[in-house]
Specification:
The chain has 448 residues and is mostly helical. The chain has one domain. The protein has 17 helices and no strands. Helix 2 runs parallel beside helix 4 and helix 4 packs parallel to helix 7. The chain is globular and about 55 Å long.
Length: 448
């Protein structure tokens, strides 16, 4: 092990979970900074319609990114379980397979995304005033998907052995590049929305190249040998078995958010701009929750591979408790300074008012997400990925579709629409708790 690795199999847990999760949460925040820099630059220097155009794309971008991140989580779990079980040859094979899969997936979704942009915009009924700008941003953004996929899979490889700082370092550099290029392309060159999209693509390439360089120079288990790349069928199947349901689980959220985005679009550009700004803030809270959820996945994965079920259970509850503590602190700060933070994106009073409404409906009940992400993360660490995906599909998507066509149809206000988020979270979490108890009682030994 090098200095950045964490020994997940022995010693105290709470401090190691924090050391693992906080850089991972900051990595998520850095990823959101790429989007925040776009939204802020457009809101301040181009206008609220350009800001609304980017906001319109958030759910569609999330749909693709969620699938890529889910697949990469499969790689994380498979490599971590192999490390825990000391199957080093299988770990090497999983690293190589993950790298090849990342490139193939990125290219595939780039092509499919470009084909589907126009039909999806038609279904979303994007207002004419923002449609051209939204399409420009989306088509340029999609060109960076291969690099984004490569970054996420490479980051998962580092996380599997406890190193969350190297991916954070790479993304911090990329975020800096993105901010500098936003200013250059928009203020100096006057490229507008095409400029911020191009800056994001370049930043994605930078982060992927940095991690690639680290992987080919790494020592030990995760070193990538470009002259000996293979796709191992057994490891590929395990990555897909675990990663695809995790990706679908993330996609379900994004699919339901696409429906909600269509409803937001019907409320006009102010609601669209407010949602874009508020989402950029609220997603940072989720990054903390998700960081501890992924800590549960990786720690449980290694310890389950080593056959230590008692330690797996301790990881689950500790990660959720620590997540709640850090998340609640951040929520209080955001809600207290909600208007001030929103005004950084746009000074329009109506945009700020609607943004505050969204933050209260989504940030205040975020504690429910701690349970949802923590239990889902633990189940994935055991290799049980399909169950949380199905629960999310049925509960989250079902509740949100029903809400839009019933409650929102009768009360077509912004607040009524935002209330669907906490309602769907509570219902999903109740079902997920029951599923977690069921599976824990019936656990099978890890793959050998």
């Amino acid at each position: 092990m090098n200095a950045r690795d964490i020994n997940m199999l022995r010693g105290s847990l709470w401090d190691k979970i924090i050391v693992f999760a906080l850089p991972l949460a900051l990595t998520g925040v850095m990823q959101q900074l790429l989007n925040a820099a776009d939204v802020l630059t457009l809101g301040k220097f181009v206008g609220k319609h350009a800001m609304a155009a980017v906001g319109n794309n958030i759910s569609m971008v999330g749909l693709i990114v969620s699938l890529l991140m889910g697949l990469s989580l499969g790689a994380n779990v498979v490599i971590a379980q192999n490390i825990g079980a000391k199957r080093l040859d299988r770990a090497h094979a999983a690293v190589s397979t993950s790298f090849v899969l990342s490139l193939a997936a990125g290219i595939f979704f780039c092509v499919v995304g470009e084909i589907m942009v126009a039909p999806i915009f038609f279904l979303l009924e994007v207002p004419d005033i923002v449609e051209g700008m939204a399409e420009t941003y989306m088509r340029i953004f999609l060109l960076g998907l291969p690099a984004m996929s490569l970054y996420n899979f490479q980051a998962a490889i580092f996380r599997s052995k406890g190193d969350t700082r190297t991916p954070l370092m790479a993304l911090a550099i990329a975020s800096g590049v993105n901010i500098v290029l936003n200013g250059l392309f928009v203020l100096q060159f006057g490229w507008g929305i095409a400029g911020v999209a191009s800056a994001t693509v370049i930043a994605n390439v930078v982060s992927a190249v940095i991690l690639f360089r680290e992987l080919i120079q790494a020592e030990g288990i995760i070193r990538l040998h470009m002259n000996a790349l293979i796709v191992d069928r057994d490891e590929f199947r395990e990555i897909i078995r675990i990663g695809l349901p995790a990706g679908i689980q993330g996609m379900v959220f994004s699919l339901s958010n696409l429906l909600i985005q269509a409803a937001i679009n019907a409320l006009g550009p102010d609601a669209m701009a407010a949602s874009a700004a508020a989402f950029t803030i609220e997603i940072n809270v989720f990054c903390v929750v998700n960081g501890f959820g992924q800590a549960a996945t990786t720690f449980v994965g290694q310890n389950y591979g080593a056959g230590n079920l008692r330690r797996c259970k301790r990881v689950t509850w500790l990660s959720m408790g620590l997540s709640a503590a850090f998340m609640q602190t951040l929520c209080l700060v955001i809600l207290f300074f909600a208007e001030e933070v929103l005004s950084l994106f746009n000074s329009d009073p109506e945009v700020i008012r609607l943004g505050v409404v969204r933050l209260w409906y989504i940030v205040a009940p975020e504690l429910v997400n701690v349970l949802m992400e923590g239990l889902s993360g633990a189940l994935r660490g055991y290799g049980i990925s399909l169950t949380p995906a199905v629960i999310t599909l049925v509960c989250v998507c079902g509740v949100r579709v029903a809400w839009v066509f019933t409650v929102f149809a009768k009360i077509p206000t912004y607040a009524a629409l935002m209330a669907v988020y906490p309602v769907s979270w509570v219902i999903t979490t109740i079902v997920l708790v029951g599923a977690y108890i069921y599976h824990i009682k019936r656990l099978k030994p890890a793959r050998r």
